[in-house]
Write a structure and sequence with these properties.
Elements: H1 3-24, E1 33-35, E2 38-44, E3 47-48, E4 53-57, E5 62-69, E6 73-77, E7 82-86, E8 90-97, E9 102-108, E10 113-120
Parallel strand pairs: 1-4, 2-5, 4-10
Antiparallel strand pairs: 2-3, 5-8, 6-7, 6-9, 9-10
Length: 121
Amino acid sequence: MSRNSRIGVLAGAVVAAIVAFVLASGGSSEKATHTSGHAYIYVVGAKPKGGVQTLTYNKGEQVVFTVFSDVADEIHIHGFNFKKDVTKNGSVTFSFPATDQGGHVIELEKRGQQIANLEVR
């Protein structure tokens, strides 16, 4: 086998290994996605359990989500500029029409910790 053939076989094996890894890990590096309906965000240790998820709604739909938190903070939805306080080991629910298209950060405001993305299409 020539040198170029060996390099081709090796390159093919590397590509196959990468594809197998991506498929085994769910095919995406993004965190969980929630589409429409009522979404739930769990904050544990002042961080979103399972990582930052994306909540996706179509323009005109009703955005509804509840944050359960083990820390007291203010939940802030950037872009919409909605804010609500959540108590330690408490929960808070947001419900509003999806009017502003684009991406919006949802965070623990005082900590500057992003807990979700809101995507309005």
